[in-house]
Specification:
This protein is of the alpha/beta class. It has 15 helices and 15 strands.
Length: about 400
């Protein structure tokens, strides 16, 4: 039987000590016996998955976790999401993330528009495509607030370039929107679309119905994360392993698909705190019978941080540990393989934003020396395991250790 590999990504799990948790981080406050066992019985280390020249985000960090050097392959966030949505990009095409969001009193109030449903979002995106589409511009629906704008550049000068600057709204909660609008080449087009898009969605029947129910309106759009199609070497060509990705987030799905992995969709997986953790665990375990390497990604800890909810983050971590890490760990043990647990990046409850700080990782399996430390940020800093300043080297570390090379 070929050796099996499992990866669990608790998105944004790493954090800083919080007064509300008695001076502990959420990982320290949460009861996580399965993650602790992996750390104690195996190798505990840490890595920085976002090089200094990039904004700290899941796009760059996920590429790093999958073993790809962002400096060599990263072209932007939206093209990764386009891959998951099945949108093909030509050599002169650009993908741009289109958030449906809430702006109140001129401030970036809620980058999720109250976690608008995918069905509601699809209606708004259709209205945007009808009102703003054409002349090379397309709007494509995604999942909830995460949608896309496509700019088809064939036969026309590209409006965007390396110095075009756009800003993720989740990194600036409650800040003045006017201070973070696009700048540089192509920004006039993006600003115009943002303004005209607001006029389309603000009084749309979807938002009038949401207002009647006391829900946050998707009264604005936000365009950011633009880029052309990236080119990734297939994971199987690099490592000889057939992989599968389980995630409710198109960004992470997209990286997996570009790496040549199969996408496994899980009913009840939402990309939010209400996701079906147990179903993700079951599907992950079942996938190990068919694939050499299986990755299960869970967005919930990241979303809890963005909402500034330490208690929700602790609960999400405990459910990930119990309903995903535990079953995956037992399955890997039965296969004689290896398991890796690592966040992509830190997301701080205090700031409600991503952070480029070190994140702890732990890997376990037969033949690995025991660290004796539990799984948390402080333990990873003092356990004496590898500290990888280039986070994309973690995958090779994981596979090399597992293959005793």
């Amino acid at each position: 039987m070929p050796q099996k590999f499992a990866i669990v990504i608790p998105d944004g799990a790493a954090d800083e000590p919080l007064e509300s948790l008695g001076g502990r981080t959420p990982l320290q406050a949460a009861r996580t016996p399965e993650m602790d066992a992996i750390a104690r019985e195996g190798v505990l280390g840490r890595s920085r998955n976002v090089p200094d020249r990039f904004l700290p985000g899941s796009d760059v960090a996920t590429l790093s976790l999958f073993g790809y050097d962002p400096d060599a392959v990263f072209t932007g966030r939206a093209p990764l999401e386009a891959a998951a949505a099945g949108v093909e990009l030509g050599p002169e095409d650009w993908a741009i993330r289109c958030n449906l969001m809430t702006i109140e009193d001129g401030r970036l109030s809620d980058f999720t528009a109250g976690h608008i449903t995918s069905e509601e979002a699809a209606e708004l995106i259709a209205a945007l495509d009808k009102g703003l589409g054409g002349d090379g511009i397309e709007f494509r629906p995604g999942v909830s607030y995460r949608n896309l704008m496509i700019y088809r550049g064939a036969g026309r000068p590209a409006p965007f370039g390396p110095t075009t600057k756009t800003v993720p709204p989740h990194d600036h909660p409650d800040q003045p929107a006017a201070e973070y609008l696009p700048t540089g080449p192509g920004s006039d087009l993006l600003r115009d679309l943002i303004e005209r898009g607001r006029e389309i969605v603000e009084n749309h029947p979807v938002n009038l119905a949401r207002a009647d129910l006391g829900k946050k309106p998707a009264n604005a759009i936000w365009l950011w994360g633009q880029g052309k199609a990236p080119s990734l070497s297939k994971f199987a060509d690099l490592h000889g392993l057939r992989g599968a990705i389980i995630s409710a987030v198109d960004l992470v799905r997209g990286v997996g698909l570009l790496a040549g992995w199969d996408r496994i969709d899980v009913p009840g997986a939402t990309g939010y705190l209400d996701t079906d953790y147990a179903a993700k665990g079951r599907y992950g375990v079942e996938a190990l019978d068919r694939y050499d390497i299986v990755c299960v990604h869970i967005e919930a800890p990241d979303e809890a941080s963005h909402e500034g909810r330490a208690d929700a983050k602790v609960e999400a971590l405990e459910r990930i540990d119990r309903e995903i890490v535990g079953p995956m760990r037992r399955a890997i043990d039965s296969h004689g393989g290896r398991i890796l647990v690592s966040p992509d990046h830190a997301t701080l409850v205090r700031t409600k934003a991503h952070d480029r700080d070190w994140v702890p990782w732990a890997m376990a399996g037969a033949g690995l020396a025991a660290s004796g430390f539990p799984y948390d940020e402080a333990s990873a800093a003092r356990a004496g395991g590898p500290s990888l300043a280039d986070g994309h080297r973690l995958m090779n570390t994981f596979l090399d250790i597992a293959n005793n090379r």
